[in-house]
Amino acid sequence: MNPRFAVAFSGGVDSSYLLYAAKAAGCDVGAYFIRSQFQPGFELEDVMRLAETIDVPLTVGTLDILRNRNIAENQPDRCYFCKTAIMSELWTLIRADGYTVLCDGTNADDLETDRPGMRALRELGVLSPLCEYGLTKANIRRLSEQAGLFTHDKPSYSCLATRVPTGTAITERLLEKIERAEKKLFDMAFSDFRVRIMIQGDRSDTSPVWACLQVPAGQWDDAAAQRAEILAALKLDFDTVVLDLNHR
Fold first, then answer.
1. Which of 12, 75, 117, 178 is the most exposed, having the fewest neighbouring CB atoms within 10 Å of its CB?
2. What is the CATH number of the domain that holds 81?
3. What is the pLDDT of residue 155?
4. Rg, C-alpha atoms of the chain
5. pTM of the full predicted structure?
């Protein structure tokens, strides 16, 4: 009997390869994606494209993540509560479909970083096969390229909430500003970047909001050359736009 399990699918490099490898090994596997305010629209597009490419059934659930005060208040343990909420919702979905095993794409490199969400995975009984077999991000990218997956060179992309400084409340309004700004920079051919926000004054809804662009050092010249275009693209959402020269 072929192993049967569900994959917490984000559309990123790791979970995409896990899904492909499970399908290639003959497993009875299903992909499950949770859509919340923290994911930009293109993530769902990538999820749907990959699932269709390797012919794996996809279920998309929705979660109003900001209804959870432990998440919206954006304290240092936000990631733990967020991962707990998402994985709990996934368990509800997969159990309704008859699955009893849930896996995610955590890789061996993730053990070397401080990730509060890892505790949530352990508490909820989520398995991480890539990590257990010692596969690093570099390993997974190489294997993904060999498999012909379009995700093999996809830049790492953390959720939109990571753009908001710890202690600053996360609102839909802020997330929408960030998503619009990053889409505009993608359209201008920038890659592997972040648009982080800084709120001035008392951090109220009327306080000035700055956009801090973190682009790879190799793209600084492009950012300078397109200064006017960047300012024009972001001026409706941000009072000031700055470039983080500490980011490499």
1. 75
2. 3.40.50.620
3. 87
4. 19
5. 0.91
